[in-house]
Every structure is written in structure tokens, then in C-alpha cells.
Design goal:
Layout: H1 7-28, H2 37-50, E1 54-55, E2 67-71, E3 74-76, E4 90-99, E5 102-111, H3 117-135, H4 143-156, E6 160-161, E7 167-169, E8 176-180, E9 197-200, E10 203-205, E11 211-213, E12 220-222, E13 228-230, E14 233-238, E15 241-244
Antiparallel strand pairs: 1-4, 2-4, 3-12, 4-5, 6-10, 7-8, 7-9, 9-14, 10-13, 11-12, 14-15
Helix pairs in contact: 1-2, 3-4
């Protein structure tokens, strides 16, 4: 069963999402060449707490940090540490907020200084793929219409979508039904209804879609070690259309 949220739930989720949007906006100012991923994580946690919320990821299934920070070939779930950002890197920052039991989730990929034209295209296509997926998140569509829209857009630009990791429902828990793959045939699966809240998150690889998990048990990397980018928003479905809660 995909849970449907009440109007009051969505109002509270909007507050959670707005907090996360502000945190992400303010955090970007610190994401520069030379800063370590551990320092970024510490700032992110401080910003979330300052807003009167809690970092949703810290301690979740044993994850040790407030932020997932993934560099270059790392797809998702990068664990913050001593590694410093360098000119030419791309870094994916994935954050979750728990505001009085209401969860929001968002991710962005940032370029550090000048990157190659192909890497820049990867980041832009990934950003646009999220927008395409959100356009398909309309009441009356099938769930797989989101998946198909993302896959078609990404592959049409010469990149691939990760298949091992997916988007998800969100709201009163960090992860709820349904799973939202970034690939698939259209017009399949559940009908989208008003009151559903979805974390839509295309993960896009420059090369093959294949991935593997590092020895730390968390960090996913591209199998061919080519770069990957990741964007995410928490979106509420309404009769008037999809509403981005984390913008």
C-alpha cells in the first residue's frame, strides 16, 4: 500500500522540505576546493539543527553521518571523511531532514571549479532528468511513467541510469512505499493519486549503468569508475499537479 498524506501532513512536510531547501542553499556556499567531506557534513548537521530539525540520515540503519557525500565515480551513500574536494571534481550531496516526525529528502550535484564539457553535460542532464521525472508525477499517470520519462531522457542524451538504486515514497518515515526505479516501460504499476509524496532521484552515469558497493558496505560506485551525478526532490502529488516541497 502506498500511503496517502492528509492536507495537514503535506503542510508539515512542506515545512520540513523548506528547511531542507534552505539548508542545501546555505551549504552550497561552503562546498569549495580544499574543504573535506567531513567538514561539509559537520556544517550540514549544524545547519539542520539550527533550523530546529534533525538530520534524518544519521544513525539510519547505522549510517554514521548527516550527509551522504559522493565524489566523481561515487554514485550515492558516500561516507564523509578526510578526503578534500579538488578542482575538477563533481560532488553529490544527499541530505534528509526530520522535522517533528515529517521527513524530506533532496540531493544535488555540484562542480568544483572548472570541469570538462562532458562532465558538465552529465551534471546538467541529471538535473534536467529530475525535472522530467517530476513532470510525469501527475495524478492519473502510472508510477512507471516517471521511470520511463527519466530513462528516455537520459539515454537520449547518451548517458545511462543506475538500476541498483531507486527513488522512494517518503513522509512519516524516511523510506516508504513505493520504490521508484529510474528505468522501465510506461503505463505500468500503481496509479498515482493525490496525497502521495515521492522522493524522485535520478542517478545518472557517464558510462555503463552498472554499479558496485565498496568494502565499507555503503558507498556505491560505477563499475567502470566513470563519473556519476545525482539530483533529488521530495514531491507531493496534488490535483493541481506535482508540488516540489524541497525547492
Amino acid at each position: 500500500m502506498i500511503p496517502l498524506k492528509s492536507r495537514e501532513d503535506i503542510e508539515q512536510l512542506q515545512v520540513s522540505g523548506e528547511i531542507l531547501g534552505r539548508v542545501m542553499r546555505d551549504l552550497k556556499k561552503f562546498v569549495v576546493c580544499g574543504i573535506s567531506t567531513a567538514e561539509i557534513d559537520l556544517i550540514a548537521e549544524e545547519l539542520i539543527i539550527k533550523e530546529g530539525a534533525k538530520p534524518a540520515f544519521k544513525g539510519y540503519k547505522g549510517f554514521p553521518a548527516a550527509a551522504c557525500i559522493s565524489i566523481n565515480e561515487e554514485i550515492v551513500h558516500g561516507i564523509p571523511g578526510k578526503r578534500a574536494l579538488c578542482e575538477g571534481d563533481i560532488v553529490g550531496i544527499d541530505l534528509g531532514v526530520n522535522y517533528h516526525g515529517y521527513f524530506s529528502d533532496a540531493a544535488v550535484t555540484l562542480a568544483i571549479g572548472a570541469v570538462t564539457s562532458k562532465v558538465n553535460k552529465l551534471v546538467e542532464v541529471s538535473r534536467q532528468a529530475l525535472a522530467e521525472g517530476i513532470k510525469a508525477a501527475r495524478v492519473g499517470n502510472n508510477l512507471s511513467d516517471i521511470s520511463h520519462r527519466i530513462q528516455s531522457f537520459v539515454e537520449g542524451k547518451g548517458f545511462s541510469v543506475v538500476r541498483q538504486f531507486v527513488g522512494h515514497g517518503i513522509g512519516l518515515s524516511l523510506h516508504e512505499e513505493p520504490e521508484i526505479p529510474n528505468f522501465g516501460r510506461p503505463h505500468q504499476g500503481p496509479i498515482l493519486k493525490s496525497g502521495m509524496v515521492l522522493a524522485i532521484e535520478p542517478m545518472v552515469n557517464m558510462g555503463s549503468w552498472e554499479s558496485e558497493i565498496l568494502a565499507n558496505g555503503w558507498t556505491a560506485v560505477t563499475k567502470d569508475r566513470l563519473p556519476s551525478a545525482h539530483f533529488e526532490h521530495t514531491v507531493a502529488l496534488t490535483e493541481e499537479g506535482p508540488k516540489i516541497l524541497t525547492s
